[in-house]
Amino acid sequence: MEHKKIMISQPMNGLTDEEITETRNRFLQFAEKEGLVVVNTLFTDDWYKKEAMAERGVVQIPLCFLAKAIDSMSQCHKAYFAKGWENARGCKIEHEIAVQYGVEIIYEEPPANANRPFTFGEKAVGLNLNPSGDPAVIKAQQTCADAIDQMNDLRNRQRT
Question: Global pTM?
Answer without folding.
Answer: 0.66
